[in-house]
Amino acid sequence: MVGGLRMQNSIIRAENLSIGYDDKVIMKNLSFDIPKGDIFIIMGGSGCGKSTLLRTLTGLIPAHSGQIWIRDIDFINADPSEKLEVMKHSGILYQSGALFSSMTLAENVALPLQQYTSYSPDKISRIVAFKLALVGLAGYEDYYPSEISGGMRKRAGLARALALDPEIVYFDEPSAGLDPISSKNLDDLILEINKTLGTTIIVVTHELSSIFAIGKNSIFLDKTIKTISAKGNPKELLKNPPNEQVYEFLTRGERHEKGTK
Amino acid sequence: MIEVTTKDNCLVCTLKDVLDETTRLNISAAQLHNKKIQLVGSNIKSWNTDFVVTLFNALKDVPKENLSYSHLPEGMEQLLRLAFQAPHHEPTNPRPKLPFLDSVGEGGIRFCRCVKKGCGFIHDCLSAWGRQLTGKAVYRSKDFWMILADCGPKSILIVSLISFMVGLILAFVGAIQLKTFGAQIYVASLVTIGMTRIMGAVMTGVIMAGRTGASYAATIGTMQVNEELDALQTMGISRTDFLVLPRMNALLLAMPILILLADFMGILGGCFVCVSFWDIPLSEYIKYTVNSFYMNHFLVGVFHGIVFGWIIALCGCYFGVHCGRNADSVGAATTKAVVYSIVWMIVTTGLLTVVFQWLGV
């Protein structure tokens, strides 16, 4: 519980984290805190390791070194039952939605409920209908993922992520492949969920409109130095960019000249 | 078509007429060294991208501030400016060739990793079976029935057809030889023993490897590409329980029934040849078939089928689960699933034959 004492208002804390695949280190010395109820953006250029960090935070790949504390649990050294407990309180929306194509939307959303609760089938179907309605998909229970649009698939994926009323929801590139209106609708939905349910939201994205629309806190992963080069509210970072890379990223490549901006 | 002159330490390249891939640019590196270069194009009648590529390759080492353009066609000048503005990177070899001994070592390490991964997967599958016995494995019964329908009833036609043809071929080939001794009637025994003991199982195994094993690898591989396996893992649902177990169970249940069908159809094929081409009476064929049918041969065949079913499901699911995250990987996983299934089936057949001989079965 050392981490727990130190975490206080944070729901996730990373300390000197090194991440990568096999022997290849992609990012190192990553240290950050994610407060409860925050909308936390992990941003950076393509190929900088944002998704790798997300995969590490969700336990899909092991960290090279360092520590991750999630809900007062040392996530890296936790035993499988503790990890499962953490994952039960987390939901993830993948880039593609990752809905199971052989199941209807209702069956997809019902799966975690069947796995982790002892609710009756009737209660599960009522919860499923509610969650689908929450993301604007009421009446689509019996549709298969292949029968709906990309934006709807993402919303259905979000309904599944929210099935167990998680404390943390991770989003991997939520705007990818969506038109501007669908993207904005999804951003609004994220804000709504954060506001009404108090869910901590962690978003991996490089979509500037989403970053400024929803981000309360953020970290910027810099590929050149292989670590975090900026932290803070994205709008504040734009006003007072700590370095050229962050400014260029947040202004779509506009050059930053000191004293003029 | 290119005239090169020097004026006040400036190399003036006057481009004229038609400029295309056949245009030669006769400028040496020494001529370009530390000189300002002016490209003059007032006389150009036509040009194409091939010429711009030739010009760029010839001038790419010249600092862009030393280059100036005069009266070039608008598109050509823009294209050249764009080419010179793009950052120039030296080509790097992403996969440098390893010395021979190193590559042997790498191969050995890769092989050991594959063996370890394979053994780990078999262990996972056996553990999943254990969980199933204690009622702790999680998979949807609906999935199991759908998979069983796909690998069972939907395979009946192809298994029947192939087995019939195999029986027919066995009878033809056997009868030609047995005729020389006047013993065509023993074709019935040959076909019965051949089909029930091994051929029925092997042919069904090969068909199911191509049909069902490939489908398992492609389905699970595509789930990997679509991040569905990640979703399962982060939901805390074992992919072995959820995806592998129903497929393995379905195939283990379907194989013995399909082998029974294959044996019957093979014997029917033999019967068709004997009755139609070798004038053997149907009653005689049936009599010799019944006399040659031994339960131990049949059970050996069924046992082979169960083992083949396990191998096919294992290979199909293993390569699906360990598939990469792109379309090519799904194709590769599917191919490997079929090839490895067939190879392991043949190897296992050899081993089982020796074991059964030793046991006197």
Overview of the molecule:
The complex is a heterodimer of chains A (261) and B (361). With 261 residues, chain A is of the alpha/beta class. The radius of gyration of chain A is 19 Å and the shape is globular. Chain B is 70% helix and 9% strand. Chain B is elongated and about 110 Å long. Chain B starts with a strand and ends with a helix. The interface between A and B is medium-sized, with 23 and 14 residues.
| Class derived from helix and strand content of chain B | alpha/beta
Give the beta-strand count of chain A. 10
Q: State the major sheet of chain A.
A: 6 strands, mixed
The tally of structural domains of chain B comes to 2
What is the topology, as strand order, of the major beta sheet of chain A? 6-7-8-3-9-10
Quaternary structure type: heterodimer
Look at the helices and sheets of chain A and give the structural class: alpha/beta
Fraction of residues in β-strands of chain A: 15-25%
Largest interface: A-B, 23 and 14 residues
Mean pLDDT of chain B: 89
Task: List the secondary-structure elements of chain B in sequence, H or E.
Answer: EEHEHEHHHHHHHHHH
Gyration radius from CA atoms of chain B, angstroms: 35 Å
For the termini of chain B, the CA-CA separation is 88 Å
In order across it, which strands form the biggest sheet of chain B? 1-2-3-4
Order of helices and strands of chain A: HEEEHEEHEHHHEHEHEEHH
Could you tell me the radius of gyration of chain A in angstroms?
19 Å
Question: Main β-sheet of chain B: number of strands, strand sense, barrel status?
Answer: 4 strands, mixed
**Average pLDDT taken over every residue of chain A:** 89
The residue ranges of chain A in which pLDDT falls below 50 over 5 or more consecutive positions are: 1-5
Proportion in helices of chain B: 55-70%
